Amino acid sequence: MNTEKDPYINILRLNKESGYAYKERRMDDWKENYTLYRDRVKVNRLTQRQSVNIPLMKQTIRTLLKDVDDMPVLYFENLNNDKQKEVFQNEYWKRTVEDNRMDLKDIQDKRQVFLTGRSFDQIQIENGKVIFTIQDVDDIFIDRYTDPVDIDTARFLIHTHIFKPLSVLMSNDMYDKEALKKLAEYRKTPEGILHNATSSESLNKKNEKMRDMGLDDVNDPMVGEMIIELSMHLMYYKDADSNHEEQLHLFVEADDMFVIMKKPLEQIIGKTKDDFWQTHFPYNTWADDIDRQDFWTDGVADIVRTPNKILNAWFSQLVENRTLKNLNMNIFNSSLEGFVPQTWEPRAWGMYGIPVPDGKNIGDVFQQLPVADLSDSLDELSYVVGMIEKATGATATQQGAQTERQITLGEVQLALGEAKERIKGMSKFYTPAWKDRGRKFLKLIEAAPEKLDAVKIYKKGLNTDNVFESEIQPSDWMSEAGYDVKVWAQDEKTAQDTQGLEKMNAAVANIPGNIKLMEIFQRKLLEYADLTPDEVNAVIEIEKQKQEAFMQQQQLLGQGAPQPGQPPQGQLGQPQQAPAPVA
User: Cα(332)–Cα(320) distance, rounded to whole angstroms?
Assistant: First the structure.
């Protein structure tokens, strides 16, 4: 069957080969990083004869994950100043975060950056919901001339190793049914059977990683349907019969042989006022060690990998040495008749006769081979571990280990604080990625609001504990001007809130009687206490009622009312000492 008649298949193959060649140099490193993290090693006859692993890779990454900041905070601000729509938009985002378990995916995302140096996520609408998926870096190929800080500068992005049953593809109206029928017929031919049995080199490398984890049937899973491997090619292309300039198109390629879909990306996702999806990928990426020339940069695991392998080799030799020292090795004079020590049965307190020729001693007949003591290598192991701690910032103190050297509590706190600040510096890299996620989240909704299901939200009423239900849909929060995405890391938000309260406290003390300033100060104070916007409004409303009641009481008693904006003694918002900074 001639498949080369497809006018697109050749350029898709060239892009895939280019993307694979650009990434191939990193794939073996990623595999080693992952297997070391999962406590799997390969033995060999020279350096590592024992299947032992010092969990330095997992220890380092788990320590860093512990101290990296939580998922950033996203807030969508309505540019029309419509606060009701703004509330609905942010409530829908909260529901999306909950449905996608974004707190756990954030950990997956950061761990992947630690292991490979880069991570990808994909956004799409599926079954009436916005879905975020953290994608395996092994599955993404990208243009080598992409700006490492902006994925949307790529000329092409390919998402490979997507496996779907043929029946599912046939039921999807977006795919070319004739091409799928040809593919099914091709699979039945001897050539097609052979093609199905042999995977691409990139898939083989990915499967090797799982095979090392003990999954022996990774290349031949037991399934009852014909499974098709798809590749999604997002690339710039200009239709000959279109008046548009070149824009992103989606080509779906099946088994590296047939193109089963070719459409402009904007036609698939939907159109926005600024034609956003003509020039933007529904993917995001970030790295914590950005390099100007190389998109596929290093990760923390690349620092740990070689020292971990060295430690494993030394520790393997130490284990084998201890085993040999316990069992002992001996030599004997094999020319003596009737002396066959191999036939002796080992037993506790066994007594064995050894023939010793005249004029000889027992050492001439039977000797124990000395086994060198390698215990001094423990100091070298400790040195290598210390070197990695300094390089990665995952110090022993952060891991909860006590140091042998006597140091003061202040020194411990200073060292620990410096290490944590070093790790939290990573937020500079993933916070912009979260802002991009928020922006593409808005554009996805703008492009296809009709594909989203309405959701129910539950809120407590004002001045009551009763819970009220409301059903919202995109028309309830979409506006002409749109939204601005505000994003900040949790540690930065805490620090900014603390500093802001200190400054506002000084302002309130020096500008007494300003009602508006006092209300703003009260709101900031309540937000700092992690109250929700509804809870803040409820508290402020009660404070206003208390102040009005107090002023009326003073007037009835004929006493002077307090200055406007100054609450009674002990009331919320009275300027006090600023809260202490949060560690």
Answer: 23
Q: pLDDT digit string (tens) for 261-299?
A: 999 999 999 999 999 999 999 999 999 889 999 999 999
Tell me how far apart the alpha carbons of residues 134 and 122 are, in angstroms, rounded to a whole number: 7
Q: Which residue has the higher pLDDT, 578 or 214?
A: 214
Over the stretch 3-33, which tens digit does the pLDDT of each residue have?
445 678 889 999 999 999 999 999 999 999 9
Q: What is the pTM of this model?
A: 0.76
Separation between Cα atoms, residue 504 and residue 578, nearest integer Å: 9
Instruction: Give the C-alpha separation, 509 to 241, whole Å.
Output: 70
Closest to 26 in 3D by CA, of 144, 109, 121: 144
Question: CA 269, CA 444: separation in Å to the nearest integer?
Answer: 7
Query: Which residue blocks in 100-233 are alpha helix, DSSP H?
Result: 102-116, 166-170, 177-188, 190-197, 201-212
Q: Which of 22-36, 141-155, 170-184, 211-225 has the lowest mean pLDDT?
A: 211-225
Separation between Cα atoms, residue 417 and residue 400, nearest integer Å: 14
End-to-end CA, the chain: 68
> Inter-axis angle of helices 56-67 and 377-392, to 10 degrees?
30
Q: Where are the domains of the chain?
A: 1-33+155-280, 489-556
Let me know: does 88 contact 477? Beta carbons within 8 Å.
yes
